[in-house]
Fold Naphthalene 1,2-dioxygenase system, ferredoxin component.
Amino acid sequence: MAVDTDNTKWVVACTTHDIDEEDVLRFDHEGTSYAVYRLADGFHASDGWCTHEQAHLAEGFVVNGEIECPLHQGRFDIVSGKPMSPPVCVKLKTWPVRVEGHNVLIGVLSTAAKDAV
């Protein structure tokens, strides 16, 4: 784990072999849950919980660059987090991702940055 100067801590969420294209994987770190996606253009990450109800997006379906919530079938754009269909209307927080070797890393807020928020 490395901390960059912008208070981002890079944590290994999975390996490139853990997730197939057009799929999603759950990753939990320090009490926060994330969803990690693999699309044709690479890997992406967002908060794990739907902004509409308490359903984890890793239990949903990835279709055409969108994640469909398993509870009420609302959809978010995976890259931007933008709501794409009702009942979701609040944007999903997305997180930076980078690949180092076979590791997929998510840039999350460092503990110091979380405490300052």
